[in-house]
DNA sequence: GTGGTCTAGACCACT
DNA sequence: GTGGTCTAGACCACC
């Protein structure tokens, strides 16, 4: 099995910008542990070819991911998975909490039971890699 | 005390389009029960004045809310809060589940504990009005 | 005097990327108070014309400034000066401290006296707008 | 104890080019006096091995340092620490002053107090070796 | 009109 | 070969 990126599914009909779809995909792979720390991502050009997306669009997604701390880039070598964060980024966490509240509220309003929601939350956390998996960076 | 909408906070700095911010606000008020079923919403013109937002933008928000089933409009009379949904809109629920998973994953990745996340979820549901007291049928 | 941006000097021979030169210029204008909070910056297209720089390059500079918290953008309206930060961004401060140390070390090595260096530091701070100038955001 | 360079820390994640990181490190060692005048630097080959960096990259760093006057090279013998500069390189000093101003301005803008900044400046100078004990002439 | 996204294609710096 | 920068030109969403 080569260093293939498992699942980067882009839907051009999706109104969400392509570079955000790429970001979401890569984030998911990192968070679920499908991509390990310091593992190499496909190069900008390579991913551009396999997805038929313009390299600049890939580049933008990668740069965003870098500034958000998910990956780091080494000129001349490629992009790599960054170590998971050590300190809480309170601004980011707060923003995510707001999204969480809005989502849960609406689910509840639509008639989904609390236990169903909590089940999904619990299972999701199980499949994440919360801070673990490494000792030194 | 007039039929004023309690809290419609628009932040122009927020990159989210204004009409979506309005939608989010109205949804929140309906979901939390601050706006009761069949209660009248402020008219487009009125809200436009109090918020200094372009009426077209308000109009678009209301139209969206109507097509999503949160409100209904009576020509010549105004817009009113719709009854809460009786059967699950599975597509919408699935979309919300996806958002939920992505949000929870990222929170977990950023180092937020499961118990903290579950606490927020629990409290959020408490302050919602799931189904407005009706049973599923 | 119109809403002209005072001094945006771009030197194409400078090896520093154009978008960084733009960023530096805008930062300087904001930090020195030449641009006040919520003041409108020239539009991407406008600045592109007056500087003969490609709009995408301006766009990139503005986006960077936004993600660094110096400006905020309102779709359909333009870019505006953000309020000065309330909380210390410890990562950014640490990075700046490192630059500061390296610069001061080298100046000292090159034979510049401590008092000369401290004079420059002092005068620079005088001409900045440390947190002041506004009460509410 | 061999003539090992004490601390050459290269961070591949750092977007700064490796050869510049090497330059910064060597400069720091010279400025702080960890490397004395006429002391021999590790050979290109040796440093390349211990750091797993491409020899060409080391070579470029050394060449730059030589042209900036920090080291001198003796064909067949190696590279050595140059004597500290006797007269001010006004162009270089001016460039450093500009960096200094920009850095201090931004620190101040971010809310760091003048006294904190001046403390760092003062301590940094203490740990430098201004002119290696020589007087200006 | 304003910013946001995307494509196409080019050149440079670094390794 | 890899990422970084820049240009040119296009289309869309928002207001």
Task: Provide an overview of this structure.
The structure is a homotetramer of 137-residue chains. The first copy, chain A, is mainly alpha-helical and 137 residues long. Chain A has two domains: 18-81, Arc Repressor Mutant, subunit A, CATH 1.10.10; 90-127. Chain A contains five helices and two strands. Chain A has a two-stranded antiparallel sheet with strand order 1-2. The longest helix of chain A is centred in the last third of the chain and has 20 residues, at 90-109. The two termini of chain A are 26 Å apart. Mean pLDDT of chain A is 86; it is low at 132-137. Chain A binds a DNA duplex (15 and 15 nucleotides) through residues 17-19, 43-45, 53-57, 59-60, 62-63, 73-79.
Write the layout of secondary structure elements.
4 copies of one chain form a homotetramer.
Chain A (H helix, E strand, L loop, with lengths): L17 H14 L12 H8 L3 H13 L3 E4 L3 E4 L8 H20 L4 H13 L11
Antiparallel strand pairs in A: 1-2
Chain A binds a DNA duplex (15 and 15 nucleotides) through helix 3.
